[in-house]
């Protein structure tokens, strides 16, 4: 089960898992669970026999059958209706199903990956997602954090997409000046990697030559963030915290603690030594900021 906000790259992680699976040379079948009309869910997932319903002019294999010996990726699983969830649960639990209108029990074996931007536990409590299906799917959960929580990735993503779009549009390579790069590092990217990718594509398309991209050439959503009062980490390569005037001392301290812990693989003793705290003081501050990721030993 891959969870995370929209645009964080859940499908990319799904494809990575498929690639490293022993069945990597087999098919990966992707299903957008929110895009299939409810009346067609059973046919799309399980397939149908010729004559099973009006318009069924030929036998059709469903996604379960097509994914046999490969990977079935159920994207946006939280959008699936309750009635469709019932049919999905039975096929997953038994590893077998019948096509619509069919009598033969078909057995399949595939790697199942599901993804959602919903908090399924809350949906279970509200009754919009089946509890038994939730626990059947959520054997191993992979949470993909939003880009604002992994700012050290921004520089790598900028360079990756810049190279990709320069090749695509036949543009010469260019650099971002210090101000434009600092703005992108400080920006929260509410649309996550998808928004960053679109920003780099837009910048590449509008680039008319020269050596540098200035801040004025960035989208307004980013340039308007100049007035933000949130400090930003500019990555291990820089080793710098960008702290705008107006940032709260708590926010500055919190970010400094977290980035120090990240740089020493969450070693509390080493981090406390670097920060000039006693280890107990560091634990107290982590409790104060309520970050479970770093508070754990």
UniProtKB/TrEMBL annotation:
Pfam families xref list: AAA_lid_14, HTH_8, Sigma54_activat
Residue stretches making up the Sigma-54 factor interaction domain: 1-205
Can you tell which superkingdom this protein's organism belongs to? Bacteria
What biological-process GO terms show up in the record? Answer: regulation of DNA-templated transcription
Extract the SUPFAM superfamilies matched here. Answer: Homeodomain-like (SSF46689), P-loop containing nucleoside triphosphate hydrolases (SSF52540)
**InterPro entries attached here?**
AAA+_ATPase, AAA_lid_NorR, Homeodomain-like_sf, HTH_Fis, P-loop_NTPase, Sigma_54_int, Sigma_54_int_dom_ATP-bd_2, Sigma_54_int_dom_CS
* Claim: Lyase is one of the keywords in the record: no
The protein's matches in Gene3D superfamilies, at most eight in alphabetical order, are given as: 1.10.8.60, Homeodomain-like, P-loop containing nucleotide triphosphate hydrolases
Recorded GO molecular functions are:
ATP binding; sequence-specific DNA binding
Keyword tags: ATP-binding, DNA-binding, Nucleotide-binding, Transcription, Transcription regulation
The parts of the chain that form a coiled coil are none
Q: Does the keyword DNA-binding apply?
A: yes
The name this protein goes by in its record: Sigma-54-dependent Fis family transcriptional regulator
Q: What is the lineage of its organism?
A: Bacteria, Pseudomonadati, Balneolota, Balneolia, Balneolales
């Amino acid at each position: 089960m891959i969870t995370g906000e929209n645009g964080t790259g859940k499908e990319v992680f799904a494809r990575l898992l498929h690639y490293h699976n022993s069945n990597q040379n087999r098919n990966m079948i992707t299903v957008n669970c929110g895009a299939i009309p409810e009346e067609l869910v059973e046919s799309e997932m399980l397939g149908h026999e010729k004559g099973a319903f009006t318009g069924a002019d030929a036998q059709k294999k469903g996604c379960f059958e097509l994914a046999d010996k490969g990977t079935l990726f159920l994207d946006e699983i939280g959008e699936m209706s309750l009635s469709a969830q019932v049919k999905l649960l039975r096929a997953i639990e038994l590893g077998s199903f019948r096509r619509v209108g069919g009598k033969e029990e078909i057995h399949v074996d595939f790697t199942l990956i599901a993804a959602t931007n919903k908090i399924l536990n809350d949906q279970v409590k509200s009754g919009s997602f089946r509890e038994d299906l939730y626990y059947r799917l959520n054997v191993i959960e992979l949470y993909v954090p939003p880009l604002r929580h992994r700012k050290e990735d921004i520089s790598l993503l900028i360079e990756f997409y810049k190279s990709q779009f320069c090749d695509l549009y036949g543009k010469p390579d260019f650099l971002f000046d210090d101000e434009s790069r600092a703005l992108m590092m400080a920006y929260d990217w509410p649309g996550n990697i998808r928004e960053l990718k679109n920003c780099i594509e837009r910048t590449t398309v509008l680039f008319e030559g020269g050596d540098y991209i200035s801040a004025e050439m960035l989208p307004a959503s980013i340039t308007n963030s100049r007035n933000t009062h949130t400090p930003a980490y500019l990555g291990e390569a820089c080793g710098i915290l960008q702290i705008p005037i107006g940032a709260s001392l708590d926010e500055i301290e919190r970010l400094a603690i977290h980035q120090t812990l990240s740089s020493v693989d969450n070693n509390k003793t080493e981090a406390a030594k670097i920060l000039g705290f006693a280890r107990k003081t560091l634990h107290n501050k982590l409790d104060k900021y309520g970050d479970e990721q770093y508070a754990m030993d």
